[in-house]
Amino acid sequence: MPLGWYLAQGLYPLGPSSSDDEEGPCELPDGRLVCGPHGFVVCGKCCSDYSFMEEVLEDEDEDEDEDEAYSSASRVHEGLRAPFSGGTEKRRGTGLAFPTKFCPPSPTINPLELFSGRRAWMRAIRSVTLQLKGPMTDHVYTHRNDPNMLLLFTDGACLNNGQANPKAGWAFVHHAGTGPSDPPGVAEGRLESQGPFGDDAIQSSNRAELRAVIAALRFRHWAGENFHTAVIATDSEYVVEGSTAWARTWIRNGWLTSSRQPVKNKDLWEMLLGEVERWKEAGMDIQFWRIPREWNTVADAAAKKAAEGRDVDKWAELIGMAI
Asked: The RNase H type-1 domain covers which part of the protein (predicted)?
């Protein structure tokens, strides 16, 4: 099985001396190494790179029985793709890849009719400025005909939007829940007063909508859990049309609108496109599904609640990972 499978099943770190707080490498059952604190082959936080083990193990595999060894091509097919930095790298998109629109079989079909819950185990590393709801196990939304297609609900909200003293919040729903004792998994947070690259930013509903998508994409190593497509369900036309259509023109025009004015929220658009490019390199496509607001009530309520929270100055990360 590939590294992504082990990570998704919670098989790191291993060994009697390994723990989440331990620095240095931890060995997986297949002999590969990952960083102790975060479980990544290439980790931006630890400044570690254990990808060299691929070549070492491949040399050892040549001496083993072919039935027990697996090729590099099969590992890519099963989900082991380009290394992922776990939300630590902030990348400005340049137009190398764009998301596309998801096409449901019917315009009236509810996302929950098409995507059901798949059992997974996870934990979350939380910033003190963010909140995570839900149990430590989750049922990730996956397509009923394709378990490698993921669904995430996102939304943003802003109290006093466009008026004095606006306060914005964002939220996304990352798992389904199974009942009253196992509610949907929701991550939420206040919109920061600084953008991802340190620029001062306003509080607005449009920025909150973009922030929710970025947070959802950076939440987990989705490609490492064998997802080839992440579908973002949102009621924001601004996000869907902007990311799949308008951004192409903005980049060609040097981030200017048709009236030759600077594109608003450029930093978040660049950040979002950077996430799309990074996931593309990891073998996963991003699609957007614009849904009616009444189909997005859980994320909507969480985003409004988050907007009522305390102010947040600097950009904060929320990272969930399999255990």
From this structure: 146-308
Contact between 221 and 321 under an 8 Å Cβ cutoff? The reply is: yes
* Whether 46 and 151 share a structural domain: no
Map residue 150 onto helix, strand or coil.
Answer: strand
Domain for residue 86, yes or no? Answer: no
**Cα→Cα distances 72→69, 80, 227, 304, Å:** 10, 9, 18, 46
Alpha-carbon distance of 57 to 27, in angstroms, equals 12
The predicted pLDDT at position 63 comes to 39
Q: What is the pLDDT of residues 137-186, one digit of tens each?
A: 457 899 999 999 999 999 999 999 989 999 999 999 998 877 777 778 89
Measured over all CA atoms, what is the biggest interatomic distance in the chain, rounded to whole angstroms? 70
In angstroms, the CA 77 to CA 102 distance is 23
Listed residues 47, 78, 109: the one ending a domain: 78
Q: Do residue 151 and residue 30 come from a single domain?
A: no
Domain range enclosing 60: 3-78
Q: Are 170 and 234 in contact (CB under 8 A)?
A: no
Quote the pTM value.
0.70
Cα–Cα distance for residue pair 317/106, rounded to 1 Å: 36
Whether 271 shows a pLDDT value over 70: the answer reads yes
- DSSP code of 166? -
Question: Does some domain include residue 93?
Answer: no
Residues 66, 122: one domain? no
Reduce the DSSP state of residue 170 to 3 states and report it. strand
User: DSSP label at 310?
Assistant: -
Q: Residue 168, SS3?
A: strand
The answer to whether 120 touches 320, Cβ cutoff 8 Å, is: no
Residue 85 lies in a domain: no
User: What is the structure's pLDDT at 140?
Assistant: 87
Number of compact structural domains in the chain? 2
Distance CA 216, CA 38 (A): 18
The number of CA neighbours under 13 Å toward the Cβ of 84 is 32
